[in-house]
């Protein structure tokens, strides 16, 4: 994705303090930029390029999924709205632990819904539980990889541009959302055939 020459990139020590959240990513930081310079940064190599493109993948997936029937769109747009608060809190947090805490309430809410279904208080396709479990497992694992900062912790500087924990977390979240979609489709197909119990 390198189409143009960018500015001189900074190392960790010269990076603004609000961007110093991974001490194992040593080089490739963009200098403070104008809006136009930020747009130009989509086309030259720096250590956030993979993060930018993996962030961009989620809206593309969401827009693609909006092509499905109305019920699916409502479930997807509701998930997006519920996630928006966590994303806002995560982007304003100054440490990785605070970023993870921004998403914990979502995980607890989903876990409680999962328990309702496992113990019979909630209903849905028996096959979708596996998909929702994989979804949450991927999201939690991605968060832990990002907090622990693996693999760059073991080879500082080697994963500055590609393959660092933040990018791995993004990919795992994308996979998680795909599993959410598959689980929702499974539940919607089940609803079409479900008969409410008679009293």
Automatic annotation (TrEMBL):
**Where, by residue number, does the polypeptide cross the bilayer?**
52-69, 76-94, 100-119, 131-148, 168-185
Task: List, alphabetically, the InterPro entries matched.
Answer: AdipoR/HlyIII-related
Task: Tell where it localizes.
Answer: Membrane
Protease among keywords:
no
**Can you cite an annotated GO cellular component?**
membrane
Keywords assigned = Membrane, Metal-binding, Transmembrane, Transmembrane helix, Zinc
Q: What's this protein's name?
A: Progestin and adipoQ receptor family member 4
Q: Which lineage ranks, top first, belong to the organism behind this chain? A: Eukaryota, Metazoa, Chordata, Craniata, Vertebrata
